Structures are given as C-alpha cells and as structure tokens.
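Annex B. Sample input.
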Amino acid sequence: MKDNIITGLDIGSSMIRVVVGQKIEQEPVHIIGVAEIPSEGISRGVINSIEDAVSSIATAFEKAERMTGVPSKSAYVSIAGTHILSQSSRGVVAVAKADGEIREQDVDRAIEAAQAVATPPNYEILHVIPRSFTVDSQSGIKDPVGMTGIRLEVEAQIIQGLSAQVKNITKSVYRTGVDIDDVVLAPLAAAEASLNKRQKELGVCLVNIGGSTTSIAVFEEGDVLHTSILPVGSTHITSDIAIGLRTSLETAELVKVRYGTALPDDIDKKEEIDLSEFGDSEEEVVSRRHVADIIQARVEEIFQMADGELKGIERSGKLPAGIVITGGGAKLEGLVDIARKEFRLPASIGYPKEVSSAIDKVHDPTLSTAVGLVLWGDHLQQEGGAGMLSRFSSVHHGVGKMRSWFQSLGT
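Annex B, continued. Sample output.
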C-alpha cells in the first residue's frame, strides 16, 4: 500500500493542508486522509520564520498520519507568493537525426533552449511549460515526436521564483523529515483538480482566492497561457470589515463567515447583526447591508485586478469557458454574480474533481490546490517521468542537491 501513496502539501498564508491519496490500478485516485492546520511563519505565500513554518508543516503531517495510519515519506509541495514571475520564451534547435525524425532528445533540447532566457538575479526556473511546437513551417503541433523535419521550435511559458523563497520552502519541508517529489506552482495544482480538459481547450481563467494572495492561471487550447499571483486575498476582506465595524479581526472573520455576502442589494435594509453574539464585550448592532457593501468593494477590486491580467494578454471577455473560482475565498456568497459582472464572462465555483473519497471535506474549494498536487503526482507517475508533465519542473535539480545536503547533516 505504501508504494501507492501520493501526498500533497499546500503551504498557504492562512492554512497548511495535507492531502494523502492512494492510487489503485485503473481507478481514480482515492483520498484517504486530509489535515488542515493554521499556518505560522508564512505571510503572503512566503516564509518569514523557518522555525514556525517547520513546526506547522510537521503538525499537519502528523495529523494526516494519525488519520491514515501511513507516514508520508515524500510530498508534492505548492509554491505561491508575489515573487513568482511568468514569461513566454522560444527555443529553436536543429533535428539531430540524419533522416530528420524527431526524437524525445530533440524535444528536450528545444525546451532546454527555451530556458536560456534572461533570468532576473537571484531567481530560478520553476516550470518550463511547452505550449506548442513548430516543425519547419508547420505550427501548432502538440507532440512532435516521430514527425520528420529539419528545424524544431518550441513556444514555452517560463515560470520563475525567487531562489531564496524556493530554498526556504524546501528547507522547511526537509526539516520535517519528508522528501520533496516536486515543487509545483499553486494555481497550476489547483487547475489540475478544478478544471476539465474541455475547459482548458476552450479557454478558461482559474481564480484561486487564498488568504493573502489570489493566484490566476489562464488556459487556452489545453495549454497554460499565463499565470500570476496578486497580493490580495480573503484576509483583506476580513481586515476591511474589522476597520469598517471598528471591531477585532477575530470578530470580523466570524461576521464574514456567518453573515458575509458580496450582494448588498439582496439584503433587507433593516437586517442587523448583533456583534455581542461573537463574544464582543460591547453590545453593538450593525447593518448587515453595510457589511455586504464592504465585502462587495473588495471583491470587485480583486476581480478588477484579475481582469487587468487578462487585458494584459488580450483575453479580457474572450474566454468561452469563463471564470472558475476556487480556494478558501470562493465560499463567500455572491462571488459568482460579481465575477460575471466584472469579467463579462460565465463564472462558476471550482471543486476538486477526478478523485474518490469517503471524506466529505475533499469536495471543497479550499482543498483544490492540495488535491491538485496529488493528481499532479499521479499523472507524473503514470507518465513514468518521460511525458510532457515531467518536463514542466526544473526545480527538482536544486531540490535533489538540497536533499543530499540535508541527508549529509543527518536530518
């Protein structure tokens, strides 16, 4: 059984989530364990205290182990944060074989050539995602292996992260005694769980609303077109409520969860919330419509920033499969209506798909990234490390070095 275990570790700004999946032949991945704990030492997707982060991650792994009875030896780990950069690149090579037949090695060389981009100082490449290939003058090819030609060209999306932050995340995980199978950009993992093949073909934008950040992944013709991490999330909504009601962040969070909606027009003007029911020492009554106005303003701002990213790649209002909202912030009432208005596109909430489980919690937008990491690992193992998905990650070389370094320290 242990050989079929795949673990996903989603390191978020507000919560750390561990999802443990078991792969049974020809069956969907079966989720056997879920653990969630509040994250310490992490802010806006980046680690600001190694000790606190290690403690939180270790606690999450222990909680998952108590549920499954199986210790996690390795995990697929998410990375986010506003330091993430995304850019397009092209790589061109001559086909090596005299008869002009394109082999795996030619594809690898083309992708390697695409990586020769001007990387900013102190950054490293996380993913190289081949979008399409061109053989001689024939463009739009998905998999050129076996074709004949002289010149092979690849158009790729290069995703880079700040080296220090990548190392801090890998260090924090290794110090818990767990190996890293791969480091995966959070919105790509969330898309793996929340989007289907048809949506990716037609053109879709995944908006993953986390605690302190909102991550975006745009797909078209089955490929990643653009990714971005915005520095706003659901905790900013909580902060706005706290300021607007002059109350504590704890009370503001409870008000948001219990009474929050982004649609003030749907609420009776006379409807009120008694803050004393949340443990506030002072008895104060506030208008629920006022709370909804505060929420609506921030949600509109988040969606306008996301639409700004779509405008930058000329896809604003032009994605037939529309907007799929996921992450912890997706559970707020009225988000879909605001999204339809701001993006001028169809919108829906994204839930983890393609998995089976006896745990009800699995089909929840908050677990999209963690479940997506398990599915990412499953697809990678199915390819045997030789398919397109395995070429996505360039970080495993650095991860391998860090693993051997930690093993030499005896940790």
